[in-house]
Specification:
One of its GO terms (molecular function) is hydrolase activity. This is Alpha/beta hydrolase. Residues 22-230 form the AB hydrolase-1 domain. It comes from Ramlibacter monticola. The chain has helices at residues 37-43, 71-84, 97-109, 132-152, 154-160, 168-173, 175-186, 190-199, 211-215, 230-242, 258-261, 263-278, and strands spanning 3-5, 11-17, 22-26, 48-52, 91-95, 120-124, 221-226, 246-251. It is of the alpha/beta class. It has one domain: Alpha/Beta hydrolase fold, catalytic domain (Rossmann fold), CATH 3.40.50.1820. It has an eight-stranded mixed beta sheet with strand order 1-2-4-3-5-6-7-8, sandwiched between helices. Strand 3, helix 1 and strand 4 form a beta-alpha-beta unit. The protein is globular and about 55 Å long. The termini are far apart. The mean pLDDT is 96.
């Protein structure tokens, strides 16, 4: 399988399947490139599908210094994948941690006044820890989780964090799929996961302080979330209200890993979005219908 080398010298493992308009899938913290298998199997029939493992996720390189993991660096790793593979205006689809990377890529490389480097952005399960009421606690929890991974290893982490409140929906709906997810999570690098948690998750900026940057995104955006993924509900609304070309889809009775939990519905929503974008039928929201970023009631 191909690999690319980032501009700071880290090798990232990639998989490239199918042909046509490219889609780049960016995985979550508890997953890796394999997490997108239900999407690659579906979309590779008509699209060129690219998945890759983030730094810290073997067979990608695992830098030992957590300072080499950050929101900016993960954003630039996505850019490096797109450039190294020669992808022209790909659709970019991210889940959770990967959705944060995709959103920051959009703020930097798909803003008004400059040529866009992506055709569209899909942000699924985006926003855990982003709300101002939860932000400081999330940072502290992420540092504690990093310490726990280093101390107890990935099997313990998968058996605890991996069974969190927004994962139980997958376990109930698809026990075999949940077992596969948990097994893959337990096999991740403890060093890479701890460094990702400490260097990236614990230091990413609060989305509620980035609304001006988000408002400048000038490509179509699809926001998706499970309606039982509580930490992502308010941030998903924030993105919808802030980005003029954003649409929001909530998947009923669903948790965090919605691409695995409801693959048919996820694929259908994503495919419809891509078709609308490619036919030029995903315009900006009418300015007369746009509320404040905090909704009709104003700031809390």
């Amino acid at each position: 399988m191909p690999s690319i080398t980032t501009d700071d010298g880290v090798r990232l493992h990639c998989e490239d399947t199918g042909s046509g308009t490219p889609i780049v899938f960016v995985h979550e913290f508890a997953g890796d490139g394999r997490s997108w298998e239900p999407q690659v199997r579906h979309f590779a029939r008509r699209y060129r599908c690219v998945t890759y493992n983030a730094r810290g996720y073997p067979p990608s390189d695992v830098p030992e210094d957590f300072e080499r993991y950050s929101q900016e660096r993960v954003r630039e790793d996505l850019r490096c994948v797109i450039e190294a593979l020669g992808l022209q205006l790909p659709h970019v689809v991210g889940l959770s941690m990967g959705a944060f990377a995709t959103l920051h890529f959009g703020m930097r490389y798909c803003a008004q006044g400059a040529p866009a480097r992506a055709r569209s952005l899909t942000l699924a399960g985006c926003g855990t820890g982003a709300h101002p009421a939860a932000y400081a606690t999330f940072q502290a929890d992420a540092r504690a989780l990093a310490d726990g991974i280093a101390r107890h290893g990935m099997e313990h982490f998968a058996a605890t964090y991996g069974h969190g409140p927004a994962r139980l929906q997958l376990r109930a709906k698809d026990p075999r799929g949940f077992a596969e997810y948990a097994r893959q999570l337990a096999g991740h690098s403890a060093t890479g996961s701890a460094n990702t948690m400490r260097g990236y998750q614990a230091r990413r900026p609060c989305l509620y302080e980035l609304t001006q940057e988000m408002a400048r995104i000038d490509v179509p955006v699809l926001v998706m979330a499970g309606d039982e993924d509580e930490p992502c509900l308010e941030p998903s609304l924030l993105i919808k209200r802030t980005v003029a070309k954003a649409g929001l889809a909530l998947l009923p009775r669903s948790g965090h890993a919605i691409n695995l939990e409801e693959p048919a519905l996820f694929n259908r929503l994503l495919e419809d979005f891509l078709h609308q974008v490619e036919s030029g039928r995903w315009p900006a929201r009418d300015a007369a219908s746009r509320p404040s970023i905090w909704g009709p009631a104003g700031k809390p």
